[in-house]
Specification:
The complex is a heterodimer of chains A (586) and B (180). Chain A has 586 residues and is an alpha/beta fold. Chain A is built from 24 helices and 17 strands. Helix content of chain A is 39%, strand content 14%. The longest helix of chain B is centred in the N-terminal third of the chain and has 13 residues. The chains are: A alpha/beta (586), B alpha+beta (180).
Chain lengths: 586, 180
Amino acid sequence: MILAPELSRDRITVGVATCGISAGAKEVLDELKKYSLFIPIMETGCVGMCYNEPIVTVYRDGKKTIYGNVQKEDVKELVKCIKDRKVFDKKFICEDLEELPFYKKQKRIVMKNCGFIQPLNLDQYISQDGFHGLKNAIELLPEKVIDEIDFAGLRGRGGAGFPTATKWRFISKKTGDKIVVCNGDEGDPGAFMNRTLMESDPFKIIEGMLIGAWATGAKEGIIYTREEYPLAIETLETAIKICRENRLLGKNILSKNGFDFDLTIRRGAGAYVCGEETALIKSIQGERGQPMPRPPFPADKGVYGKPTVVNNVGTWGHVATIMQMGSKNYKKIGSKFTRGTKILCLSGDVKRTGVIEVPFGIKLKEIIYDIGGGAPNNKKIKALFPGGPAGGCVVPKDFESSLDYESMTKLNTIMGSGSFIVVDETNCMVDRAKYFLNFTQQESCGKCVPCREGTKRLLEMLQKISKGNGVVQDIDKLNELAVYVSKNSLCGLGQFAPNPVLSTIKHFRKEYEEHLVEKICPAGVCENLVQYIIKVNCIGCGACKRNCPVGAITGDPKERHYIDQSKCIKCGKCYEVCAFDAIEKK
Amino acid sequence: MELRHLNINDSCYYYLVEKGKRIYVGKEKPSDEELQDLMKLKPQITDKNIIELLQDVQKEKNFISEEDLIRLSQNLDIPLIKLTGVASFYKSFKTKKQGKYKIKLCNGTACNIKHSPELLNYIETKLNIKSGETTKDGLFSLEVDNCIGACARAPACMINEDIYGNLTKDKIEKLIEDLK
């Protein structure tokens, strides 16, 4: 591997993907550029360490120094340190990412360029084995390329885990115009790995799609992405332009006669259900994005009735990686069930949040505690919600389980897009289920009745429970309806929507019962069920009594006060004004 | 095949006409070369441009009114029911005028866990509008998004196309004051 000249020289990089920008990386970059440093300053993508953004890396004399949480105000001192060849201790993180616990258990193969190269620098991409995968592919016959992908054991990274090679074989046998589609409609709350990849290494996705086009014989490619990702769209557009200029897109690619392929980008318009492949095809055609029953499968009748392959952004990234490193090497990574790596987004109540790439077979506890660092403020972790709003929950006793499609199915959950959201003990599980149902109910496209009406009724029942108006029988009713909705809905959205209800009832039945029988919310989240109680350490200052809008608090000065629960409207005013921490919320 | 244009609110939309079929081209006049390529398009591709067309109209005007839809339908020969169907299905098409600064507060799972509903309350009180509304001076409009994909910096919001993370009430206050 020969490094592009820039990558072996001294330089300073600032991560300016969306996570970085949201933390102020643009300002840091502008500030840095004001100083004449005699070292080139470059913009890179995201290294995945979102909790430390904005990140500045100084490459000097073959050594790296990585700084995190760098704010505009720190730049002056940082520049002075760089000039004096000193380390800026205040914001210093490490010299090598590998030393950090966040990276130790990761295996970054698809994301290895992210945050290292400049996303839109073709030379730098090529110096990192870029487009070598495509070169390797076109030296083989298309069927052989599919065999390679099959041998590597690649399964779709969008959620369902369907073997990619099988999908490709269906379409490679067809004649006539064919289309490959990249699904970048990443709507799952908690998932942003596709965006990170599109922003930080766009050429990898294009390379993956080119390999797919060679293998299947498609001449047209479409990247469908969300309009919420303006930076990703801009980056991809420029990357496509650069590829066209360098004859990596267009006619006779890499001087291979008859290998023609071109790409267009489609912006979604804010509909979660369009992540489902049949809905996505509808949306590409300019129609309402409502899913269609399968068969016909997209491989038979896809975009404009042409045979179509739809793969997730991550899958295309893996395709390029497999052809670059060889399927034999790729196969060595992962568990015996599922090969390779998975990009996950870790967020919620963990110390270290970000985008991680881990080998299949890693234990869930390693992801949460070793990489994520556990819950902040010494709280206990209550559950993990993998796979977005449809995944359901995994409780700590199952954290010994390993990450692969089979084990996740055993836990009654799904891999999904790979969003991993951790919640701590301060969360109420009824409230969580209610939140997810609220989401799926809003995003249901309304085509089939079980999903449209079912999710609405489920949500209403959960609202009733969280208001304290439910009865114990509601749990069984919820269960029954949830099973019905999941069995009878048309697409994945409805089929998996009841998962949060089913799994929270399974693991946290006691909590539901407490809401229904004792009318309390143990976590103190459900407003109507919260009780405010004045503890013995009340000194009788009278602040709560003065501030209570309904006069529910009684007590003599310098004596412990009491709240009349029948009068209390749970506004929380007393809790806010108490200066002695004498009011308990439960 | 003939290139025509349509004016809506000072903006120009180009489309091709052939045998009664109309194909939306875009807001910029295509070059001769591009026109050649477009001529090769098959008529079935007409529909694919509906979303792009509406996105262009919305980008220009901030919203799409019922009159716009009727005019587009009449001039581009697309059934009104099809245009309205698409415009009402996708959340990003607005039927009411939006503010100069569109605040999109994220309520994805991670943001929700980090108390974004409290921030929503705060913004609603501060701007004196509810989610989905626009302030009287036409400066801000507020909406809640189901996930803007900045989960690791939760809670987050988008103001027009810029993303701000790790929000607190103070940060939001400053953001809004700076824009006023």
